[in-house]
Amino acid sequence: MEQHVGFGMTARHDPDPTQLAPLGARIEELGYRELWANDGRSRSGLATLAASARETTRLDLCVGVIPLSERGPEAIAAEVHALGLPHDRLVVGVGTGSGSSLAVVRDSVAELRRLLPDLRLAISALGPRMCALGGEVADVVLLNWALPDRIRWARERIADGAASAGRATPRVACYVRVAVGPDSLARLTGEVNRYRGRPRPYTRLFQEQEVDARGLPGVAAERAEDVPALLAPYREALDTCVVRGLPASDAISDWLAVAEAATLRA
């Protein structure tokens, strides 16, 4: 399966196309194949992608992920249609959100396939049961906060799920946080600690990987030129390594600084 590199950004409140379109264009120019935006309360990943994609022609546009506890399939499909996003470039990702039901994810994917039959669908997965479900029903499985050996562990369970359903194994992607600059480790540590305060699945994920002893998932580099080598173990383990920026500020120039550091075509 062809390997891709994607770039991940935070969804914006009322995303401004005049601000975000240059970011999308530069990401495409740098050779990234996918642009990912997260989603959540009052922030639409789909709207951020629509604003970012105005000046692009090749980037796949991926939302990772819409919490099903906040929006169901009909609301998601309505927003896709309202924004006029190109279906051939769009990947819609969903996750449980504040819930934990595999049945909700399974049923929602089935409903989205009915409502949006020409779209690719992704699901987020942390534990073994969701990885197996991703193998059964998704086109892309999106991992998060995973060290390379955890990625390989997840891939085995995704492949088992696909085999049980008699289908090809889906693409496996993962958000890999990347911070660059003198305070890069502090930014990465701060983001890990923010997730430690979330529901137990993240706490358990960090514990199972023994991150306090082994090191944090992601890349913290004082020098931009060190980023590609630090990313290499993640890229080797994935079909799509999504460089999830942890910029020094929310300025577009700082997002682009991370994107440029993480690609060999900077």
Describe this structure in words.
By secondary structure, the chain is α/β, with parallel strands linked by helices. The protein has one domain (4-177, 225-261): Alpha-Beta Barrel (TIM Barrel). The chain is 45% helix and 20% strand. The chain contains eleven helices and nine strands. It has helices at residues 17-29, 45-52, 73-83, 102-115, 128-137, 148-164, 184-196, 200-209, 211-214, 227-237, 252-261, and strands at 4-9, 34-37, 60-67, 90-95, 120-124, 140-144, 171-180, 219-221, 240-245. It has an eight-stranded parallel barrel with strand order 1-2-3-4-5-6-7-9, surrounded by eight helices. Helix 6 links the parallel strand 6 and strand 7. Helix 1 (17-29) packs parallel to helix 11, helix 3 (73-83) packs parallel to helix 4 (102-115) and helix 5 (128-137) crosses helix 6 (148-164). The protein is globular and about 45 Å long. The model has no long low-confidence stretch (mean pLDDT 94).
Q: Layout of helices and strands, plus pairs?
A:
Elements: E1 4-9, H1 17-29, E2 34-37, H2 45-52, E3 60-67, H3 73-83, E4 90-95, H4 102-115, E5 120-124, H5 128-137, E6 140-144, H6 148-164, E7 171-180, H7 184-196, H8 200-209, H9 211-214, E8 219-221, H10 227-237, E9 240-245, H11 252-261
Parallel strand pairs: 1-2, 1-9, 2-3, 3-4, 4-5, 5-6, 6-7, 7-8, 7-9
